[in-house]
Amino acid sequence: MSESLTAKRVVIVGGSGVLGAEFARQLREAGARVGLLARQVASIPSDLQDLVHAKVDIGNRDDLARALREVAAEGIDGIINAAGVVAFGSLHELPSSVVEELFRVNAVGTINVLACGADVVEEGGFIVSLSGVAADMTVLNMSAYCASKSAAHVAMAVGARELRSKKISVLDVRAPHTETGLTDRALWGSAPTMPPGLAPSVLVTRVLSAVTNGERDLPADSFST
C-alpha cells in the first residue's frame, strides 16, 4: 500500500457492508484516519466499531451532509461510496417501490455523494463510487438494477468533469461480480446462478492502488479475476 494514504481522512459510505468494511480495514492498516457511515450502525463489524461512525440515509442529501460533518469535522481528503442495493425480476414484475428504492440508493445516493463531496472534500482529494459492472450491462431480470447503476456511472462521469476545477479526483469503479453476499439480501427476487466472483480484498486493494496512482476509471477489465 502506498504511503500516500497515511494520515488521510477518508469517509466510507456503506461501512457496514462487506466491501465497506474491507476498505476500512485496508485503509486503517495503511495509516489513514477512517470514518464510517452506515444505514444500520449496529451492523458495523465489531473490529471496526472503534472507528468514528454515524447513521446515514444516503438517499437524503441533507442527512448525508450532516453525517459527513459528524464523522469528519476536521475535513475530508476522500469519500468512498460502497453503498448499494440489488433486486432481481423483470420490469413488469418489480413493484414500483422496489424500483424507486434501487434508484434512490444506487443513483440518487451516488449523486448525493458527489454533491456533498464537492463541498467537503479538500483540494487534491478524491471521491470513489462503486457502480459495478452492471452499469455496462443489459441483463434479463436485472433491468431496473442495471439502469440504476448505469445512472450512477453517468453521474460519476459528468461529476469527474465538473469537479476538475476543485482539483477533486473522481473514480468510477465498475468491477466484475464480487463475493459480497449482496445477492442474498436482494430487495426482491432471487439471483441467477453466477460463477465465483472476485474476492473483496482483491477489489479493495486494486481500488486503493488506483486512488494512490491517480487513475480516473476502473472498468471490469481492470481487475484480475
Could you provide a short overview of the structure?
The protein has 225 residues and is α/β, with parallel strands linked by helices.
Contiguous uncertain segments of 5+ residues = none
Number of strands: 7
Main sheet makeup:
7 strands, parallel
Q: In the CATH hierarchy, what is the superfamily?
A: NAD(P)-binding Rossmann-like Domain
CATH class: Alpha Beta
Radius of gyration: 16 Å
Give the helix/strand layout.
Blueprint: E1 9-13, H1 18-29, E2 33-38, E3 52-55, H2 61-71, E4 76-81, H3 96-120, E5 121-130, H4 143-162, E6 169-173, H5 200-213, E7 217-218
Parallel strand pairs: 1-2, 1-4, 2-3, 4-5, 5-6, 6-7
Helix pairs in contact: 1-5, 2-3, 3-4
Q: How would you characterize this protein structure?
A:
This protein has 225 residues and is of the alpha/beta class. The protein has a single domain, classed as NAD(P)-binding Rossmann-like Domain (Rossmann fold, 3-Layer(aba) Sandwich). The protein is 36% helix and 17% strand. The protein has helices at 18-29, 61-71, 96-120, 143-162, 200-213; strands at 9-13, 33-38, 52-55, 76-81, 121-130, 169-173, 217-218. Strands 3-2-1-4-5-6-7 form a 7-stranded parallel beta sheet, sandwiched between helices.
